[in-house]
């Protein structure tokens, strides 16, 4: 009996000693707001310099991490690229640089040469949206819009009053309109990584998806 009591006392003593050694740290839980990596500060500074060299007026925007794979890193607000664009918010700088070149050197000349009128403005459906891709097969993944690295284009407005929309004119019976839309689409494919049109799927029936992701996918 004495031996049993001594054994029990020893266990209690060890427990008290361990308790007095300090608080036991619990392992950290994985963060649900893991930061999204974007262009490096050096790459962003170079992109800003490129925009200035192109004569683009822009405003750098602060980086923001929203969690869940959504973030604004290295983004700008385009103020004047020479071609007005409606509904455009934060855009990653590299995307903005490519878009400015496409709008000025691809869309504007095509409007004048093919349709016989100067371009008044491009109508976008926005850039940043914290969401997954829509209408694609395979596991769910974040859209380029979740990084402000994609722009959706809905229509082109001309100074003579005409409005050429992706929804209404992609399969227009007018040969000039057809040529214009095919020309600006081909121009986008030479500049952006991923370009999706109504020919890709029904989700894109009303816009062109332009994404500067380094891919080579044009539909």
Please describe what this structure looks like:
Helices cover 34% and strands 22% of the residues. Helix 2 runs parallel beside helix 3 (93-115) and helix 3 (93-115) runs antiparallel to helix 5. The protein is α+β, with helices and mostly antiparallel strands. The chain has helices at 2-19, 41-53, 93-115, 166-169, 175-191; strands at 57-60, 64-67, 70-72, 75-80, 85-86, 91-92, 119-124, 150-158, 163-165, 194-196, 208-211, 217-218. The strands form 3 sheets. Strands 5, 7, 8, 9, 10, 11 and 12 form a 7-stranded mixed beta sheet that branches. A 3-stranded antiparallel beta sheet has the order 1-4-6. A two-stranded antiparallel ribbon has the order 2-3.
List its traits.
alpha+beta, 3-stranded antiparallel beta sheet, 5 helices, 34% helix, disordered N terminus
Structural class: alpha+beta
Low-confidence stretches: 1-33
Number of helices: 5
The helix content, as a percent range, equals: 25-40%
Write down the Rg. 27 Å
Strand fraction? 15-25%
How many extended strands?
12
In terms of quaternary structure, what is this? single chain
Q: Could you give the order of the helices and strands?
A: HHEEEEEEHEEEHHEEE
Reported for the largest beta sheet, the result is: 7 strands, mixed
User: Could you say which overall geometry the principal axes of the C-alpha atoms support?
Assistant: globular
Average pLDDT over all residues? 86
Summarize the structure.
Helices cover 34% and strands 22% of the residues.
Write the layout of secondary structure elements.
Blueprint (H helix, E strand, L loop, with lengths): L1 H18 L21 H13 L3 E4 L3 E4 L2 E3 L2 E6 L4 E2 L4 E2 H23 L3 E6 L25 E9 L4 E3 H4 L5 H17 L2 E3 L11 E4 L5 E2 L1
């Amino acid at each position: 009996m004495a031996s049993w009591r001594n054994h029990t006392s020893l266990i209690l003593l060890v427990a008290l000693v361990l308790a007095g050694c300090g608080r036991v740290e619990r392992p950290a839980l994985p963060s649900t707001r893991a930061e999204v990596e974007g262009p490096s500060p050096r790459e962003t500074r170079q992109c800003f310099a490129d925009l200035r060299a192109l004569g683009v007026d822009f405003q750098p925007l602060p980086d923001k991490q929203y969690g869940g794979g959504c973030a604004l890193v290295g983004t700008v607000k385009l103020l004047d690229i020479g071609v007005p664009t409606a509904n455009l918010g934060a855009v990653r700088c590299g995307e903005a640089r490519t878009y400015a070149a496409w709008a000025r050197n691809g869309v504007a000349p095509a409007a004048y040469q093919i349709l016989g009128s100067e371009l008044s403005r491009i109508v976008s459906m926005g850039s940043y949206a914290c969401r997954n891709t829509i209408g694609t097969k395979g596991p769910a993944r974040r859209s380029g819009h979740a990084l402000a690295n994609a722009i959706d284009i809905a229509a082109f407005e001309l100074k003579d009053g005409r409005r050429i929309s992706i929804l209404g004119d992609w399969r227009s019976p007018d040969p000039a309109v057809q040529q214009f839309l095919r020309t600006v689409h081909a121009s986008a494919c030479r500049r952006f990584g991923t370009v999706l049109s109504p020919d890709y799927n029904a989700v894109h029936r009303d816009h062109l998806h332009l994404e500067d992701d380094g891919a080579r996918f044009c539909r």
